[in-house]
Amino acid sequence: MSKKGIISLEALVKLIPHLILVVVLLFGLAALYKIFIQEQEPIPAVNDLDRTVSIIKQLSPYETASVFVNAKGYSLVLHSQDSKDPPEQCGGETCLCLVMPQKTTCRVLPRIGKVCKEVSQEQCRFEPMCFVPKNNVNSVYISSIKDLIYVCRACTRIAMADSEERCQTLLKESAS
Fold it and tell me: What tens digit of pLDDT does each residue of 111-134 get?
């Protein structure tokens, strides 16, 4: 009788702790993957944030643009430099933040100051934009996928709302 392929009881007992260790290591690697790799994949709401920031940066004077959103259940909050309790990610600058139940992600908006200059229409394009709502915060809640966010700009002032009419009203309120 050949004993090839037969494992002794002693060898089996020595092998079991090693198999357990391999299983624990595999679970540990899977957990690390979830923490570091998977979270770096773009979230649809973060894509909405980045698209909105891009549109704000490209907005011409007296233009209104709409942003089509692909996620729901979050708010986009535009903080001015003077906002009460702005997120640390803003670093004292005007920024647009994505506020979700789990976390907040912000993008700084360069060239958007806190002092609005009223200038002639010819100078509008050359002056930095400003953001001056009455409470220094402008937010839009996204309740369903395929909602639209409206970003509008007067000469130098910008605002954001869930309708074009509300956006224009915010601009008028900030001017008075």
Answer: 776 666 667 767 777 777 776 555
First to last CA, the chain: 100
Which residue ranges make up each domain of the chain?
9-40, 44-175
Neighbours of 81 (CB within 10 A): 18
- Residues 16, 117: Cα–Cα separation, whole Å: 75
Of 2, 19, 131, nearest to 77 by C-alpha is 131
The answer for residues whose C-beta is within 8 angstroms of residue 117's C-beta and 6 or more apart is 127, 130, 156
- What's the rounded Cα separation, in Å, for the pair 79 and 92? 10
Per-residue DSSP letter, 97: E
> If you average pLDDT over residues 37-46, what whole number do you get?
67
**Tens of pLDDT along 143-163?**
777 778 888 888 777 888 888
Which tokens sit at 105? 């992600």
pLDDT tens column, 1-27 = 566 767 788 888 888 899 999 999 999
- Give the residue among 139, 6, 131 at the shortest CA–CA distance from 80: 131
